[in-house]
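FAQ: What does the model actually see?

It sees only this:
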Amino acid sequence: MAQVYISIGSNIDKEQQIIASVQALHAEFSKVELSSVYECEPVGFKGDNFYNLVAVVTTDKSPAQVGEFLKALEKAHGRIDFSKKFSARKMDLDILLYDDLVLNTPVQVPRNEITENAYVLLPLAELAGQLMHPVLLLSYSELWLNFNKSKQLINKIPFIWPEA
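And it is asked to produce this:
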């Protein structure tokens, strides 16, 4: 069984979309753990702030199968244009890590956004601070400690999850 770290983000109907994303992960995977939820400014465009978090799931699915599941979930929740990198999103789900694999296809792991964006690195460091980046060989806590925090505003928010 693999441990897969998944970034979750939304800036359109964000509370409902975050809840829907997490419910879908619980329905698909046997074990799901979550970071706190963070609010942060959009990167690369002007728009409403995002809610972001990271989930870790345990699965026997391949990286390609997990990627296909996430894209199908995004599409089911109204995502149409997968080519626009910087735009408003109802649901944005990306594999960050798949165990300690290093791949470029069928998905990129570890994902470049880990070290580039606070909205990925901070929740990942919270959830898996002692885990080592498989290429940089630094822990996610160390990467967050050295991250330029003036680059992007990010705040942990109190998020109320519905009763299961």
